Amino acid sequence: MSEETTNKQDMPEQLSDILLVLDKEKMKIQAVKSIDENGKMETVDPTKKNQNQFMRVDKSGDFFSNFFSNFFSQLKNPTNFSFFKVPAPIAIEKAQELQKQVDKPTPEGEKVMKEHEVKAQTQPDKKQENQNNMETAQTTTEATEYRYKPEQIDWDTMKNLGLSKEYLEKRNLLDPLLRGYKTNELLPIGINLGGSILRTDARLSLQQGEDGNVIVAIHGIKKEPNLHFEFFGHKFTDEDKKNLIETGNMGRVVNLVNSKTGELMPSIISIDRLTNDVIALRTEFIKIPDEIKGVKLNDEQKQTLMEGKPLYLEGMISSKGTEFSATVQFNADKRYVEFLFDRSNHNQQAQTNQQNTQQSNQQSQPQDAPRTFRGKELDDEQYNKFKAGQTIYVELKDKKDQPYKGYITFDKDTGKTNFEFPGQYKARVEPAETHKTQTAVNSEGKTNEATKNVQEPLKSGQQRPKNEKQQEQQDNKPAKSKGRKM
Length: 486
Description:
Blueprint: H1 3-6, E1 16-23, E2 28-35, E3 41-44, E4 56-58, H2 61-74, E5 81-87, H3 91-103, H4 107-116, E6 117-118, H5 127-133, H6 155-160, H7 165-170, H8 174-178, E7 187-192, E8 197-208, E9 214-220, H9 238-247, E10 254-257, E11 264-271, E12 278-282, E13 291-292, E14 295-296, H10 299-306, E15 311-317, E16 323-331, E17 336-340, H11 346-361, E18 372-373, E19 376-377, H12 380-387, E20 392-397, E21 403-411, E22 416-420, H13 422-442, H14 468-476
Antiparallel strand pairs: 1-2, 1-4, 1-5, 2-3, 5-6, 7-8, 8-9, 10-11, 11-12, 13-14, 15-16, 16-17, 18-19, 20-21, 21-22
Helix pairs in contact: 2-5, 3-4
Domain DUF4099: 148-229
Protein name: DUF3945 domain-containing protein
Region (Disordered): 99-142, 348-381, 430-486
């Protein structure tokens, strides 16, 4: 069985529609980008260069009607514009066709314009209802991404999973569900199997079933990403696998195949770091910001990110006001540009995240010590000591393949691995050992080799004879009889 059949829910984004607009004063066709709080519409030229800025709307008829009624009611001077809804893959082509009709009208062109024109009276009787349903939506492209309403959710199913509307709202997880996203964290759920109950951690999402009803999809944790089978027609190369394991992103655009229609879908691929699912996102849904942490991106840099490639940026400013540099890359699962500081230990980070989440949800559940730390696999002797809670010495390599050394200790209570450089370890351990020895000498009457024959009491911190007299006593004192009881 291929990954395509086992991960049907991970299909790339469904086709969406683009909203084009004719400014009746300028007589120019543009693509809608957004609308601000004052009702002013922002548009861009309908070109390939700007396609990542186009406002996209779910092609569902009911959803589009709801959205457009709300959009039109917010618009300042709405009578100055005419709107057209066209499929995203042919938006640029249709915009050019509509512009030709504006410039040189023909009966055929008029027919095309009427076919795609959208009027505000689509569902006038629901205008107030739509206003209420969309009142929490932002007036940017995010406003188009609400796919579901709370009342569409089967709350009885949620209850059977151990979840409620109040719980999801309190954790700020309901909003991403309504937008069609997966929850951004793992949730503890219980599944009743009749004779037993399965308890696990999973991400949740909402999807539309074949009967039109909204269903709850459960995304459980996999041991590792399944990269051995074809993924929507794509066979992962060794380089693809290496990039996905190390950074979580494949780093290039590939054509995936829609199994139903045969359509080629240019997409990027990433790994869900919480569940290890393979996630694809069509390139038309990639949104690249104009700037990142104070660094304005040029067209070449934007194109690099649009192609799913990593980009190294210098001179960024952190929230604390300090300058830093880092590699950034667009992540298909998160749907935004992320920072890649040190992803060389991606598997271990994902495992640690899972352990931390499980610990917070099921604190009584014991934690297993990881066999690998920062790419270093422990041998049997090291691992046995490590999982027993002992501190072990390891030699590691950083992301530039430079060696460094340190000490690691596994905390069974938290499931975390603590790392210390040699200097940190010695600074913590040596004073403690010195104090332990001194306590034994001064308080418990014990001696060490350097001081066991000294008759004068030692001062605080002294472990060796302080002068020749004490040293002579140490050297000349006869050994004690082995038969004498202490």
